[in-house]
Design brief:
Elements (H helix, E strand, L loop, with lengths): L1 H4 L4 H11 L11 H18 L1 E6 L4 H4 L5 E3 L1 H10 L4 E5 L2 H10 L4 E3 L15 H10 L5 E4 L4 H5 L3 E3 L4 H7 L4 E5 L2 H9 L4 E4 L12 H9 L5 E4 L5 H6 L2 E2 L2 H13 L3 E6 L2 H8 L5 E4 L13 H10 L8 H19 L4
Parallel strand pairs: 1-2, 1-3, 3-4, 5-6, 5-7, 7-8, 9-10, 9-11, 11-12
Helix pairs in contact: 2-3, 3-15, 5-6
Length: 341
């Protein structure tokens, strides 16, 4: 109760009222006094700790817009993490993202607000699985989605994200690649290239629940609806979509729709993504087929505050794994920085 009462004090209001303007379209004003004390305390502690908060696009708006310093998809977070000069990184996402931040910042302290924030896709494959594939296909490059553990990355040749997967697969100039672990993303990549793709049967528990029938149902009463889908969705969803891309790609596409006069948009991805994009584009109307990621939602303002206060929970990667995993991530970043034809 003491912390919530701080919301009535002038210092907290003066510090957080300008921040509320960023989220007033999506967070009711009546709820703001519950968030404001945490926002003020977190932002003060960030300065004291020389910390930076990285937040994935699937974080709730009160994290995404009020305390996060760097936001984006997995690729954007990996690239920005590699550039930060902060002493402490608090990763508001899931565990593999924190490991990636640690790989590219071995000397910095990387924290997660909740150690239970895992990922069904990352847990669908192990390093031993990758070694078996390597022995079965010894001359085939192993391309691993960044949504994997450091141990799996360490057994791979290069990492990718949904935004650069096609680019990197083609840049390898190999006739075939092993693409791990998301089956649906692998199928999407295969549809965009002539490279033979050997896939694994891992799935994201959020995206695999969407179906083409869902899209058709939403279109029934609104034939002008613009459907955007993440490539982790099943193929029948992608076939019905007007645009397929990463969370960053979807956000940029909505921005173009906004510039052309607005639209009614359906995002087939984790539902906090729609909230965060909606905050930026007032003339775009969002239909929200809400599939929540239970792991992303483990991150909360109180947990972030505790993380900075107690410097918990630190994410580390064993040196013998980190060295090899870092190579796969850095190779991805090198490919991503190369100009495209």
């Amino acid at each position: 109760m003491a912390l919530i009462d701080l919301a009535l004090q002038g210092s907290v209001a003066a510090e957080t009222d300008p921040i509320f303007e960023r989220v007033e379209r999506i967070i009711p004003r009546v709820e703001w006094p519950l968030h404001a004390p945490y926002v003020a305390a977190i932002n003060r502690l960030k300065r004291e700790r020389k910390a930076v908060i990285l937040a994935h696009n699937y974080q709730v708006p009160e994290i995404f817009y009020t305390v996060a310093d760097i936001v984006g998809d997995s690729l954007a977070l990996a690239m920005k993490a590699a550039e930060t000069d902060a002493d402490v990184i608090v990763l508001c996402g899931v565990h593999f993202m924190a490991e990636t931040a640690k790989l590219v910042n071995p000397s910095k302290t990387v924290l997660v607000p909740d150690l239970r924030a895992g990922c069904s896709l990352a847990e669908s494959i192990t390093a031993a699985d990758v070694r078996l594939l390597r022995s079965a296909y010894p001359d085939t490059p192993i391309v691993t989605y960044v949504n994997t553990s450091a141990e799996v990355k360490a057994e791979s040749d290069v990492c990718v994200t949904s935004g650069n997967a096609v680019q990197i697969v083609e840049a390898l100039q190999a006739p075939r690649v092993i693409f791990l672990p998301d089956e649906y993303l692998a199928k999407y990549v295969a549809s965009q290239t002539n490279v033979e793709i050997i896939a694994w049967k891992g799935h994201c528990e959020v995206h695999e629940r969407f179906s083409g029938a869902d899209v058709a149902r939403f279109r029934e009463g609104d034939p002008t609806l613009t459907v955007l889908a993440h490539p982790e969705c099943p193929p029948d969803v992608l076939a019905e979509a007007d645009f397929v891309g990463s969370t960053q790609g979807m956000s940029e596409y909505v921005g173009r729709l906004s510039e052309s006069g607005g639209a009614r948009v359906l995002l087939m991805t984790e539902c906090s993504m729609a909230d965060n994009v909606a905050a930026r584009y007032a003339n775009v109307d969002f239909v929200r087929p809400c599939n929540l990621c239970p792991h992303m939602k483990r991150n909360t303002l109180p947990k972030i505050l505790h993380s900075l206060e107690a410097m918990e929970y630190e994410v580390t990667v064993a040196p013998e794994i980190a060295q090899r995993a870092r190579r796969a991530v850095e190779r991805m970043l090198e490919f991503s920085r190369q100009p495209r034809d």
